[in-house]
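Listing S7. Sequence submitted for prediction.
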Amino acid sequence: SSGRATIVSLWDLDSVKEISREPLQTDRRITAATFAAGGRALVVASADWLGEKVLFSKSNGAAMHEDEEGKMRITFRFDEIVSGETICLADQSGPQALAVDSSGSIVYFPEKRCGSHGGLTGARRRVRGAPLYSIDAYALAIDPASGNLWATDRSGTLTLYRAPRPESR
């Protein structure tokens, strides 16, 4: 273990006060992030991982207790676990490489083919990942009215795509 951890600080922009810190349960370098599911989920990406963290959980966090044998145990809600899947983010992806559709439940991201897609889901998912193969985009944006997906590369070339609807997994 590297001893590193990734924690996201969430701020109220009106009062300029920190409202919570959310552990992402990874030591990966996060390169892109966006809110999804009506602001109830934070979706983050690293070069090889797409993670989803449920925000503002109703529980009071993990609870430590002693079992009948005197061993310490920890109890937490299943939705407090970060869900993740293995991906291969496109090489030229930037901090705005994730785009959320108008429903808030699909996150598009540029992905290169590498054969490692799929993975372990730690908790109930609110958001589904939709990889866009062969698009080496630095940034993505979706027009909610038309469903069009705009992609730009590092040189500034802007390309318009029709956003595909991902298949059910």
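Caption to Listing S7: primary sequence and predicted structure tokens for the chain studied. The mean pLDDT is 79. The chain is about 0% helix and 40% strand.
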